[in-house]
C-alpha cells in the first residue's frame, strides 16, 4: 500500500471531498475539500471518529456498518443509492452521496470515502417526484369539475371488487345521467352548460358521504361508489343526491333532472366484474328513463341472474 504521505497527497488532488478511516472508524486522513464541506478545521477531524459527521440518531448503529464494510470485499460506487444525512460542525444536516473503496494491505486495512454534497440532487428528485405526482393526479382528474375521471373510477371500482373478493366490504355503484342536459347547452350556450356541470358535480359530491367515490365519466354522466353501503343505504344517499341536484337546477332555471341506476354488490362471484356491474347499473338507469326519467332504479348482483326494482320518485 502507499504510505500515509502518498495517500494524503493523493486525496488532496482529487476533485471530491475525501477522507480515510481505519477499521475502528477513526479518521486518519482528510482533505481540504472535506473539511470545507463539513465546516471543520483539519485538526478537528484528524483522529476523530467518523460518527462526528453523522446525525446522532444513527451513530449507535454506525460501527456495525463500518465493521460490515471492512469484513466484505465490496466497494460502494458513487450514485448507487448509498446516500445519507451528514452533519456539519454547526449542526446543519444535509444529504451526501458517498463512494467507499478498500485500500491498504491485510495488516492495515483502510477505507477511503469520496463524498459529494447531494443537496441539489435531493431537491431535484423531490421536484421530479412532485411533478410526477401532479401529473398522475391530473391524469385521474376531470378537468372541468375537479372530480375523479373515468380512468380513476375504473381503477377504484376494480380495487373495490378485489376487496369484496377478499371479504373486506360490500359496495354499491351508481350511474347518474342528466336528463335533457342538451337543452341547457342549446338554450344558454356551452359556457352556461359548463357552469351547470360544475354546480351539479358539487351538489353530487356534497350530498354523498366523505367515504364515497364520485366521478364524472362522460359529458353529462357521473358515477359514484359507496363502500360498505347496503342497497337501502345507497338509495337513501342517492335520493339525497337527486334532491340536492334538483334544488340547484331549479334555482338556476336549468330544466335538468337525474336518472340513476344502482347496482349493489354484496357477494363476490364470477359475475363481479367492472363491465358486468356497470352493465347492470346502466340497464337499471335506462329502465327509469323509459318510465319517465327523474327516477332511481336498483339492481342486485347475485351469483346468478339479477333482480331490479324501481325506487319511488
How would you briefly describe this protein structure?
Helix content is about 45%, strand content about 25%. By secondary structure, the chain is an alpha+beta fold.
Descriptive notes:
The chain is of the alpha+beta class and 313 residues long. The chain folds into 2 domains: 4-122, Beta-Lactamase, CATH 3.30.450.20; 140-310, 2-Layer Sandwich (Alpha-Beta Plaits), CATH 3.30.70.270. The protein contains 10 helices and 11 strands. It has helices at residues 4-13, 32-38, 42-45, 56-71, 119-139, 150-165, 182-188, 190-207, 231-252, 274-290, and strands at 17-22, 27-30, 83-87, 93-104, 109-117, 171-179, 213-216, 221-227, 257-265, 296-300, 308-310. The strands form 2 sheets. The protein has a 6-stranded mixed beta sheet with strand order 7-8-6-9-10-11, with helices on both faces. Strand 7 and strand 8 (221-227) form a beta hairpin. Helix 8 packs antiparallel against helix 9 (231-252). The longest helix is centred in the last third of the chain and has 22 residues, at 231-252. It starts with a helix and ends with a strand.
Amino acid at each position: 500500500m502507499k504510505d500515509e504521505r502518498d495517500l494524503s497527497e493523493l486525496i488532496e488532488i482529487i476533485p471530491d471531498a475525501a477522507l480515510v478511516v481505519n477499521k475502528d472508524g477513526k479518521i486518519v486522513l482528510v482533505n481540504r475539500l472535506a473539511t470545507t464541506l463539513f465546516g471543520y478545521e483539519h485538526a478537528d477531524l484528524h483522529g476523530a471518529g467518523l460518527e462526528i459527521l453523522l446525525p446522532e440518531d444513527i451513530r449507535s448503529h454506525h460501527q456495525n456498518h463500518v465493521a460490515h464494510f471492512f469484513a466484505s470485499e465490496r466497494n460502494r460506487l458513487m450514485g448507487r443509492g448509498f446516500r445519507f444525512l451528514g452533519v456539519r460542525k454547526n449542526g446543519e444536516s444535509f444529504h451526501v452521496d458517498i463512494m467507499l473503496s478498500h485500500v491498504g494491505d491485510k495488516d492495515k486495512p483502510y477505507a477511503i470515502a469520496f463524498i459529494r454534497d447531494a443537496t441539489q440532487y435531493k431537491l431535484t428528485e423531490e421536484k421530479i417526484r412532485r411533478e410526477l405526482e401532479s401529473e398522475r393526479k391530473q391524469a385521474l382528474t376531470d378537468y372541468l369539475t375537479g372530480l375523479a375521471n373515468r380512468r380513476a373510477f375504473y381503477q377504484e371500482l376494480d380495487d373495490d371488487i378485489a376487496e369484496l373478493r377478499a371479504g373486506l366490504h360490500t359496495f354499491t355503484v351508481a350511474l347518474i345521467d342528466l336528463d335533457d342536459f342538451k337543452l341547457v347547452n342549446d338554450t344558454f350556450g356551452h359556457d352556461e352548460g359548463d357552469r351547470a356541470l360544475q354546480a351539479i358535480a358539487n351538489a353530487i359530491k356534497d350530498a354523498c358521504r366523505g367515504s364515497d367515490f364520485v366521478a364524472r365519466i362522460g359529458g353529462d354522466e357521473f358515477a359514484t361508489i359507496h363502500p360498505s353501503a347496503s342497497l337501502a343505504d345507497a338509495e337513501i344517499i342517492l335520493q339525497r343526491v337527486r334532491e340536492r341536484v334538483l334544488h340547484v337546477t331549479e334555482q338556476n332555471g336549468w330544466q335538468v333532472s337525474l336518472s340513476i341506476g344502482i347496482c349493489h354488490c354484496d357477494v363476490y362471484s364470477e359475475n363481479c366484474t367492472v363491465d358486468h356491474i356497470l352493465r347492470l347499473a346502466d340497464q337499471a338507469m335506462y329502465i327509469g328513463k323509459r318510465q319517465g326519467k327523474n327516477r332511481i332504479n336498483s339492481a342486485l348482483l347475485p351469483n346468478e341472474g339479477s333482480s331490479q326494482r324501481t325506487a319511488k320518485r
